[in-house]
Each structure stands twice: as C-alpha cells, then as structure tokens.
Amino acid sequence: MARAPSALKAELGSHETLGQRIRALRQYAGMTQAKLATVLGLSRSAIAHWETDRDGRVRQYLPRLAELFEVPLEVFLNGMATQEAVVELTIDEVDLLRLYRSLDVGERLSVQRSIMRLLRRRQKAAP
Q: Domain named HTH cro/C1-type: which ranges (predicted)?
C-alpha cells in the first residue's frame, strides 16, 4: 500500500469535489490513472475527466470504486464517512476513539480498510 500523499492528509470533507476525492483515494492506493482505468475497463482519459469533475457518468462507478478502494460509499458523497449517535462507550472504546481521532485522514482510511479486511476474513472463516 502506498503512503498517504499530502493531499489526502487534508480533510476529505464536503467542501472538496468528488473528483478530488477519487484522485486522493487512487493515489493513496498507489494506482495510476491508467491502472485504475484498466481495472474498470475504461480509458485513462475517462479517469482524468472524473478527477477534474468534467464527467457526470462517474456516479454509476461509485459502488465499484468504493469496493476497489475498500471504503464506504459515503466517502465519495460526503468525504470521510460520518454518523452521529448517542451511545455509551466502554473505556476501551473511548481509548480507541481517542486514538482514531488523533490520526490524519490517510491513516484513518488505512485503519478502516484494515478493519474491513479483518471482518471479511472472520466472515469467511465462520461455519
């Protein structure tokens, strides 16, 4: 996995465009535009158009991109996935949340991807 580029360290918030989010996640994954295009069966110029917000057809590919980059679909729509809730947390959960919040965006994505991989492995191992 590639190291997080400095652009990804900036918040993937709603003030950024969909194209910027796609570019940041592609770079974080260590992929070139050409490689992403090949994986999706598209041209490199199609990816370039997405990343510069010149092609509205990107939305039909968002579920595939979310799967490929191992991030929730919400990341493309809103930036970092967020969900507000009022819950009681254990001491361990409070510690984990504190540590998670101290990470930059690239590191948070890495943690999310790791958790998703662990859960998939557990699901495959379950009888």
A: 22-76
pLDDT in tens, the chain (127 residues): 333 434 444 445 544 788 888 988 898 889 999 999 999 999 999 999 999 988 778 888 999 999 999 888 878 776 655 556 567 889 998 899 899 888 887 788 888 888 888 998 999 998 7
Give me the number of domains the chain comprises. 1
Q: Other C-beta atoms within 10 Å of 46: how many?
A: 19
Do the beta carbons of residue 79 and residue 14 sit within 8 Å? yes
**Residue range(s) defining the domain that contains residue 21:** 1-127
pTM comes to 0.56
